[in-house]
Each structure stands twice: as C-alpha cells, then as structure tokens.
Amino acid sequence: MGVMIDGQYRVDDPGPDTTESGEFKRAAAKIRQWITEDGPFTPDAGRYHLFLAWNCPWAHRALLARVILGLEDVISVALARPRRTDQGWVYDESGEYSDQELGVRAVHEVYSRQRPGYTGRLTVPVLWDRETEQIVSNESADVVRMLGLFGGPDLYPEPCRSVIDAWNDRIYPTVNNGVYRAGFARTQEAYDKAVREVFDTLDAIEAHLSEHEWLAGDTFTEADLRLFPTLARFDVAYHYAFKCNIRRIVDYPRLWNYARRIYAMPGVAGTVRFEVYKQGYFSPSELRNPLGIVPAGPVVDWSL
To answer: For the residues of 23-76, what is the DSSP string, one character each?
Structure first.
C-alpha cells in the first residue's frame, strides 16, 4: 500500500514488518496529538472529520464510537473503497466512497498535508482538524477516547478503568493484533505462537462471560467496543484468510451471544459490512491469496 517519506508518497510496498523469527510486528501510530478542553484542539462540534475505511478494524473502532456516542451530526466521515490499490486506501470522485471534505482521492493525500513532512505507514482512522488543517491523530485507541469528550455515554467510567485497561492490554496483542500476527507470520513457530494466544484469550473471555454481562462487569465500555471489530470479522475473514481456524466465534456460546448483543445495539449493525470484509481480506496477496478469489461463504446469521 506504499509509504510516505518526508511527505512524499512512494508506491513501493515494503510489506508487513517482521522480526528475524518471522513474527509480524505492527508499526506504532506516529501522530498522537490530543483533543482537550484547554486546546489547542478543543471538543467543538463540526470541527473534526474522520477518514475511515469499511475494511479496517482500527477504523471500525472510530466508526463504532461515533455511532454509540451519538456523534453522527458532530463528526463527519469519509469511507474509502473496500480494497486498497497501489495508492493505498482510495476514494471515488463522488458517491458512497468519496471524500466531501478535502476532495482527496487517496488517504496519502491527507498525510501529505501534514507539516513537518510525515514519514511512515498510511493508516486509518485519521482524525482531521478543519481549523488548523492538520491531522490530530492516527491512533485508533486515542481517537475512541477523545470522541468521548463530545458527549454520549461514558465508555471509560472511573470505577471500571483498571478492569478496562487490563482487558485492553490483553486483547490488543493477542486478539485484535493477534489475528494479524497469525495471518502475517513468516514461520511455523511464529504462527503457532500467535494462533495459540488468539484462542487462549477467546477462551478466557468465554469463561469470563459466564459470570459477567460485559468485559468490565455490568456496563458496556470501551473494552467491549475495541473487541467487537475483531469479532465481526472473525468468522468471515480471519478464520479462513488468516488461518485462525481452531474455532469460530459461533462455536463459543457465550461469546457468540455477546457479539450479537453488541451488533443489536442501536446503529451498530450499520457499521458492519461482512461482504466488504471478505473482499478486503481475500484481495490478491502473493502470500495468502495469489488469485484473489473471494469465497462465497460462510453465511452467518447475526440476528438475536
């Protein structure tokens, strides 16, 4: 998908970062400014715009937060086409996959406006500030937390913070990123380690849900929001394309019911595109899917 070097886009895709042992290593987000009451980025309605992509689970976090917090009229969005090209995440000139804010045709055009010139991978979500004409953040966890400043239910309540943090710290490396560590592993040992950790954590969540309604107890929180995008993609994409195939989410009675309860929350189903996930994760890949053939199934009923 290319990279940006000193503000200039380069088409050459270096491929996933891996260690000498063949383990996938995700690059850290590099733009991490914050919206605060004191500024310079303040939580003002209509000031910010999100560049997202239907396929990306990290972007899905921001889209979920926008819906659950009731911010559809406060934060605008542009959603990229389902599949990336050699230009990365791209937009049409008009229609569903267009950007009506800056009129860009690719996410790298947004990054090219950052000063000093940006160097790094080109990821979504991107939280754009209209007032200063710059990116505030490209770290999804920070964006979710900042959107809470605009109103809506408290997804990070003080009494639950230690529990939320503990789940976030476990779920991110072993599940959210764990499926990628399995899918992008370059050695059998790296794959075995990653896939074992994915299912160890899913097993732990299944056990936890036997006594609790949500991860942090009786309240839906940021921890549940951050887990859901992985669950939504698991059976239609990660189970097959990333070889996370020991079990499916539908094979976990409590976890499957938990995932469907989130899906049934107002507005959440509108943030989910199962067919788009398949198009993206089964796009042409020399290592995983050289012919780019998208499977017909599975058919999964998410209704309660």
So the answer is: -B-PPPP--B--B-TTSSB---TTSEEEEEETT-HHHHHHHHHHHHTT-TTTSE
Residues 95 and 176 in one domain: no
Q: 244 an active-site residue?
A: no
| Each residue's pLDDT tens digit, 57-78 | 999 999 999 999 999 999 999 9
- Domain span holding position 139: 3-150
Mean pLDDT of 236-253: 97
Kindly state whether residues 9 and 133 are assigned to the same domain.
Answer: yes
Residue 177 has pLDDT above 80, yes or no: yes
Q: Is 180 a catalytic residue?
A: yes
The residue assigned the tokens 């990628």 is: 180
**Given 180, 191, 238, 277, the catalytic residue:** 180
Of 56, 238, 240, 277, which is the active-site residue? 56
Per residue in 198-217, pLDDT tens? 999 999 999 999 999 999 99
**Spatial contact of 164 and 216, defined as CB atoms under 8 Å apart:** yes
> 77 and 47 in one domain?
yes
